[in-house]
Sequence to fold (68 residues):
Amino acid sequence: MKAAEIRKLSTEEIEARLDEARHELMNLRFQKVTGELVDTNSLRRTRRLIARYLTILRERELEEEGNE
Fold:
């Protein structure tokens, strides 16, 4: 998901998707340890997606602070 697409979502939706992505990352890590993970690039994609979510949430937080 691109950053522009994420910015269109509400803050609550982003937080929900962030929780899902973190859960997915945990599952991918378990799969890697047990040798079941086939697509190792999925770890990298998921970490970057989490970073995008966190970045956009931080942007919104700073924007709110600036408006006060």
User: Anything to note?
Assistant: The two ends are 31 Å apart (CA to CA). The helical segments are 3-7, 11-34, 41-67. The chain has three helices and no strands.
